Amino acid sequence: MKLLQKTVLEVNINCMKCKKQLMKTVAKNEGIDKIAINSEKGTMTVVGIVDPAVLVNKLRKAGKMADFISVGQYKKEDKETEKTKHHDNFPSCCKQCEVVVIGFPSYYPDLSPCSIL
Question: Where are the beta strands (DSSP E) in 3-112?
Fold first, then answer.
């Protein structure tokens, strides 16, 4: 029987879109029991039976930088001290997540300009 492992990662969270992408990428892995993100500190806590190196590699492949802060056994005392905080003061999208729109003027004055998304 494997014991639950608590992995704390340092991640870059600039907006709600970044947070959703982090959660989505980590949640795809098998063996994860709990995911918690602290936006103020820029940390992600993952509890479960999963290799921490696999988590970091998957996040990096998804374009999100992540570094280890701590890896250890999950204790019952940790369950009591954890509290869920919801902060909605983040912007919906940051400059790293924005879609860039490029517009080109038309060669014909009667037509509207072409844009490529």
Answer: 5-11, 32-38, 43-48, 66-73, 102-104
Q: Which residues contact 63 (CB under 8 A, 6 or more apart)?
A: none
Mean pLDDT of 51-67: 88
Give the sign of the dihedral formed by CA 5, CA 6, CA 7, CA 13: positive
Cβ atoms of residues 60 and 66 within 8 Å: yes
Q: Which of 37-41, 52-56, 108-112 comes out lowest in average pLDDT?
A: 108-112
Report which of 30, 35, 17 is spatially closest to residue 82, judged by C-alpha positions. Answer: 35
pLDDT at 75 over 90: no
